[in-house]
Design goal:
2 domains, Arc Repressor Mutant, subunit A, three-stranded antiparallel sheet, 129 residues, single chain, 22% strand, three-stranded mixed sheet, alpha+beta
Length: 129
């Protein structure tokens, strides 16, 4: 799969891919680093971040920003949106057919929409900010 997307399959990249690509998942770079370290202590934190950037650039995964403090890497690259629950740190997929966005604002001249990424942040019912 890596070669198909133009990514050279090094041992470190394969170790990182094995944490993300076999099934749909949402993981932080820190969680990926921790999981890979359990199997291979030769993968540095910098290698994980560089590999994640490479995977995003080559369409293997998506980067989902849920705020300044939290980034997830999503192995589901198809159209979909997310619920984010800051209380438990979970990011959950929402099928794109479950969301209806009827209109978009007027786009800048000479530009077109490439995608719409929606993250709905959750809080307990009745809770104030």
């Amino acid at each position: 799969m890596l070669r198909e997307r133009g990514v050279s399959p090094t041992a470190q990249r394969i170790a990182i891919a094995l944490e993300l690509l076999p099934k749909p998942t949402h993981l932080s770079a820190e969680e990926i680093t921790r999981r890979v370290a359990l199997r291979d202590d030769n993968v540095s934190r910098a290698t994980v971040y560089n590999t994640l950037r490479c995977f995003v650039e080559n369409g293997l995964i998506r980067q989902v920003n849920v705020g300044a403090e939290r980034v997830f890497y999503d192995s589901n690259t198809g159209p979909h949106h997310h619920f984010y629950d800051p209380e438990n740190g979970e990011l959950t997929d929402i099928d794109s057919t479950d969301v209806s966005i009827l209109t978009l604002p007027k786009l800048p001249e000479g530009r077109e929409a490439e995608s719409v990424d929606l993250v709905i942040r959750l809080k307990p019912t009745g809770a104030t900010r």
